[in-house]
Amino acid sequence: MGADGGSSVNNCPHLWQSRSPMPSAEGCEECLNSGAEWVHLRMCMTCGHVGCCDYSPNKHARGHFHDSEHPVIRSFQPGESWLWCFPDEIGYDPEDVDLEGADLS
Q1: What are phi and psi of 77, to 5 degrees?
Q2: What is the pLDDT of residues 2-24, one digit of tens each?
Q3: Which parts of the chain fold into alpha helices (H)?
């Protein structure tokens, strides 16, 4: 929420860079390849990369952001749909995000 009590969604240009990607894997790509374990999963909203969260030992979702500069992830946990913008360090409920007119292809 913004300082005025309104949503700060309109202040985050990175949400407009989001797409509707297909998940790249059913688990953290890097952890699956190395045999490591993860805590929770996150999916990149630019390319669909699935990585593990910051509570996981390897933090592959954040690593993907640093390597790719793809700014927005969403929870890839069953029953969760929140979004997170790494550059702005802010989370969003997708129901509060109006991307009308955005090119989400």
Answers
A1: -95, 140
A2: 333 344 455 677 877 677 789 99
A3: 29-34, 60-68
